[in-house]
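Table S2 (text version). Query chain:
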Amino acid sequence: MISYAQNFEDVILWRVLRDVSSGFYVDVGAFHPEIDSVTKWFYERGWNGINIEPVPESFALLEAARTRDRNICAAAGAQAGTGRITIFPASPGLSSFRPSHTATMERNDLEVEVLPLYQILQPYAEQAIHFLKVDAEGSEREVLLGMDFSRFRPWVVVVEATAPGSQTRISEQWQETITKNGYKQVYFDGLNEFFLASERMELASRFEAPPNVFDDFELAATLREREWRREMEGALRARKDELSAARIQINSTQAALALSEAVVAKLNSDLGELARALHKSRETLEQVFKSRSWRWLAPIRNVNFALRAYRENLRRDRFFRTE
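Corresponding structure-token output:
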């Protein structure tokens, strides 16, 4: 099992209701389709139900993710009307009609529709309700006053029993509203009180122990961390492959560069040899020019040059006369 709820409420409810297939729930103050959701695990198992959420942004998320559910953008209260709710953009799950416990947070006030639970449930008079969960940030009494427990009989009722943001138990404000209608308080998890309908008391023994190893569950946060780690490992492997390919390319480039450097070095060496040979030839030529034999043979070279010029002129004259 994967537990999405903030205090393992879904673990207890699944233990109690695991024999029910395609059950039905009512979630007052649903907040989010997955985060801190008591119903997410049940929805994944094929259940459906009603999600009541007055914060528009949270309602939009529910509407998009819970297509089999009926999602209602309203607050549950003692009677129909409107009310002014304080919304905390940084933590919309704390939105409340009594926001004093979060006085330092940024807030926005919004007028919302208020509907009693019995009115919301009217179209489901023949539908068995397997659990009702109420988390109204201090307005649980008003929610329960709007419920008709004689007509609608959730098997299990889960109600947040402490003052918002504290461990102070305030269930005495509303507990009798439930118990006088044939429900017995069977479990307290430190945050919520669980009530069981008198006609379902055969399930009472399933509330005897807190969530434990035999419930065989893990936290959604653990699952998300594992999936994140798997994604990061995949990304890391891909990055390593890219680096390996880049390293091969670098090695290939370095080898080509080394070869090019060797060729350049050989060319430089050959050029040096040629330069030295040219220098030696120049020295030899200068020695020839400075030699006595070169000077002595100068008249002969001049006569030869004159003869060559004379012969070239004769050849040119014959060519033009022929033409």
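Notes on Table S2: Residues 86 and 99 are 6 Å apart (CA to CA). The mean pLDDT is 88.
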